[in-house]
Each structure stands twice: as C-alpha cells, then as structure tokens.
Design goal:
about 280 residues, alpha/beta, 9 strands, about 20% strand
Length: about 280
C-alpha cells in the first residue's frame, strides 16, 4: 500500500489538486488491489488495454508495463496534463480526453493493428457504472474481458444469477453477453478520499455465443426491462404498464410457455425470458 499511497500524495501535492466529487473520483492507493486487478485481467504483451478514467495513472503505470498498448480515456481535463507528463516516455500510451459514454470505441479498436486481444480495465466512477457497462456490452465490441472496480452492491447485482434475489435487469444483460466472476473485495481504506461504500473488483468474460437462442434481442431485453420497472409486481402488470402487450395477450403468452399468471418477472430465468421472447415473435 505504501508505494501507491506515496505516489498519489506526491502527485496531488505537486499539482495542488484534489479528487473531484462531481466526477466521483476516489484514487486507488492499495498496491495489492492494483496488482490483483492487473493479474486477473490476464494481460499479455500483445494486448490492447482500454482504461476508463485513469485519474492520476496509478493503475495505468502497471498496465503499460504489461500490455502492447494502453488507450486511456479520461474526462477530467486536470488529469490530462498530469498523465501526459507522467507517461511521456512510454511509446505504448495513448490518451483521449473525452466522456466514455460518447466515445466510439469500435472505431478506436479498429484503428489498432497487430493486436491479439482487447481488454477493458478500469476503476469505474460509481455514479455511472451501469451506463458504462451497458455501453460496453451493447456496442458489441471485440472484447475478451472487462475487469473493473465497482461498488460492492452493484458487483453483487452484476455477478449474481438471473432469477436470484440480488438480480436486476442488468444481471440478465451481463449474463447474456458474459460469464461474470467476483475477484476481490476492496476496503474503503484503499482509496483517497475514502468512499462511503465498499468496493469489489469483478471480471466479465465475454461469451463467444449467448447462453440462450432468441429470435429478437430487442424484444428479449424489452421484456426483461418491463419486468423490473415495477419490482414485486406480477409480470402481467409490469408488461401491461410498459405498453408492450395487453393484459390478455400476456396471459395467453404465459399459458403457452407454461408459466403461472401470477409469476413475477424477477424470479424468471434467462431461459424463461428466451421462451417468452420466441413465443411472442411467433404470435405477432
């Protein structure tokens, strides 16, 4: 912990800056956690790493030592000059000052040549974790894995099984595109400033093929989203309120796939939603 801590304090004092609350900045100072992130990302010297929100570059430094190239995407203009100065001698470092939600990652990846695999590694801003994860998945990027630090509560939702108590709509999306795994719990004391919540490093390994066969991804995710809009409501009420189908249409659909009328969306498995999707397509 001492090296990352000293490094961070030196940079903060040198540039006379502090973490931005509005950007959800918490600087990681735990060397063991940093090494665990790098180790679990399984980086080779032929890989392209895209780091989201590098901040002061504590994790970036370790990534540059392992990867063929690191492209860091940072929104905070204050960090840009620090990162440029800090890594000016690294020829495998590229910095982009932009909002990750607005960046065309497909274009960035396609412009890189002679890369074996593309991996995302990041200490994500907690206030926009879900939009970032969804962008990475929905953009259908040629990724091998996503290794990220997130809020512990969110980590449980992202890595839980569809249909379990901790599952949310995003659980189904993550499990559709990836095989998720928990890596390590991270105490609050691992950051400056200390966040109020505990953190966890997780890894999402991108699947070659989804675990279920569906006739429309759009309908599949619309059904899931509608089911979680009003948690603890029945699936019939949730989908009726979404305007996707009428109450009678949903009841007919449930009967066709052998699900009870009073079933709640939150208890359905991925296979259940796949059956509903495929049946819906066949009758519309």
């Amino acid at each position: 912990m001492e090296n990352a801590y000293k490094e961070t304090m030196f940079i903060l004092n040198k540039y006379n800056i502090s973490a931005s609350k509005s950007l959800g900045q918490n600087f990681l100072i735990n060397d063991e956690v940093i090494e665990k992130i790098v180790e679990s990302a399984n980086i080779s010297n032929e890989d392209l790493i895209i780091e989201i929100g590098p901040g002061l570059g504590t994790l970036t430094k370790r990534l540059l030592e392992k990867a063929k190239k690191v492209i860091a995407i940072e929104l905070d203009k204050r960090m840009i000059s620090i990162l440029q100065e800090r890594f000016s001698l690294y020829d495998n470092f590229k910095l982009i000052n932009d909002d990750i939600l607005k960046v065309n990652l497909n274009e960035i990846i396609q412009n890189e040549k002679d890369i074996k695999e593309v991996k995302i590694v990041a200490n994500l801003p907690y206030y926009i974790t879900t939009p970032i994860i969804m962008k990475l998945l929905e953009d259908k990027l040629t990724l091998k894995s996503i290794t990220v630090m997130v809020q512990k509560e969110v980590a449980k939702r992202l890595t839980s099984n569809p249909g379990s108590k901790q599952a949310g709509a995003i659980t189904y999306a993550v499990n559709y595109y990836c095989e998720p795994e928990e890596i390590v719990l991270v105490p609050n004391s691992s950051f400056i400033p200390e966040p109020e919540v505990e953190s966890e490093v997780i890894k999402l390994n991108l699947r070659n093929n989804p675990p279920v066969k569906i006739r429309s991804e759009e309908v599949f995710f619309k059904l899931i989203k509608a089911s979680f809009m009003q948690r603890r409501k029945t699936l019939v009420n949730g989908i009726t309120n979404s305007g996707l189908m009428s109450k009678e249409e949903i009841k007919t659909l449930l009967k066709k796939v052998n699900l009870p009328e009073n079933v709640r969306g939150e208890v359905l498995t991925m296979q259940d939603f796949a059956k509903l999707t495929n049946e819906y397509i066949s009758i519309t």
